[in-house]
Amino acid sequence: MARIFITGSSDRLGLGIRSARALIKRGHDVYLHARNSQRAQDARTACPGAKDVFVADLASVEGTKSLAKQLNQTGPWDAIAHNAAHPRLAQGVTNPKNKDGIPVLFVVNTLAPYILTSLVNPPAKRYVFVSSGMHKGGDPSLLNIQQCNYSDSKLHNVLLSFWFARRLADRGVLSNAMSPGWVATRMGGSSAPDDIDAAVDTYVLLAEGSGVAEGETGKYWYQTQARSSSGTGHETSYLKELDDEDLQDQLIETLEKISGVKPPEYFTNWDID
Ligand SMILES: NC(=O)c1ccc[n+]([C@@H]2O[C@H](COP(=O)([O-])OP(=O)(O)OC[C@H]3O[C@@H](n4cnc5c(N)ncnc54)[C@H](OP(=O)(O)O)[C@@H]3O)[C@@H](O)[C@H]2O)c1
Which residue's C-alpha comes closest to atom 20 of ligand 1? Predict the structure, then answer.
């Protein structure tokens, strides 16, 4: 039995809640997350078997730090799934900014998983970074990162997972990225064509570190299989640039500068400001 935490697990149709239900069925203790108390109540109603729901708005650095504090007070964790995401902006819609003037999509999708993974101590044994096949349309230059769009942020998620896989390897931590495919959730829309059960099975495998995922780290998964950068098809491979360790390092340096949060390597004191 594992203790598993899933961010952005407040929507009754969402992959977070669906994966939580599947993991609970398999005997795990699952903890949910919502942006506010109303959404936390929604999460409890949708998934009554969950152990608890943590409340934190990931649209600010402070909100994510407060979540890390809650996780540290209740850890250690076997697995953390970075599932929360701000959706793709509709054509012509301005990217909203948080109270610090930073675009929310960047803060929720890119900065929050970096901050949480850096501040949770001891680290979880396994991390799941939920990306998307849309990362292939992302910009690997990392230019104007705060103005990034959804595809860019999903590319960042893969870079983050690969970087943490390297950095936390000597602590026995496994870190993987996955694409759920285009599946029917509030974000995906009701006519999404891909197999949502296969997406949930992938969350389960990676959160448990079981079956074909046992001992695996630094990989990109789709429909329960690790995929390579040379595969074919939209979802069945990842952008080969993501294997570039310099690019992974560059992203971490950039996020450290923006957030003021140091990655785990430099920790001497685990207190969170
Ligand atoms: N569905 C697809 O076809 C598809 C395809 C590729 C990748 N994905 C990825 O799969 C993951 C789950 O998406 P989903 O389809 O299940 O959509 P979803 O139900 O909309 O899930 C997104 C979750 O993130 C939460 N969230 C967003 N902003 C937040 C904030 N500021 N603070 C706290 N929580 C916040 C949402 O909370 P609220 O409910 O309160 O807004 C929601 O619970 C995402 O990472 C998404 O990018 C989905």
Answer: 187
Q: Kindly list the domain boundaries of the chain, sorted by start residue.
A: 3-264
List the CATH code of the domain at 3-264: 3.40.50.720
Q: Which of 243, 216, 215 is nearest to 228 (CA)?
A: 243
pLDDT tens digits for 10-34? 999 999 999 999 999 999 999 999 9
207 Cβ closer than 6 Å to some ligand 1 atom: no
The pLDDT tens digits of the residues spanning 154-189 come to 999 999 999 999 999 999 999 999 999 999 999 999
Question: Ligand 1 center to residue 170 CA distance, Å?
Answer: 31
Active-site entry in 31, 65, 127, 154: 154
CA triplet 175, 176, 182: central angle to 5 degrees?
150
Query: What is the mean pLDDT of the segment spanning 84-93?
Result: 89
What is the distance between the alpha carbons of residues 251 and 268, in angstroms, rounded to a whole number? 22
For residue 31, report the distance from its CA to the centre of ligand 1, in Å.
Answer: 16
Concerning whether 154 is annotated as a catalytic residue, the answer is: yes
The atom number, within ligand 1, closest to the CA of 108 reads 31
Q: Which of 35, 99, 160 to mutate to test the pocket of ligand 1 (most atoms within 8 A of CB)?
A: 35
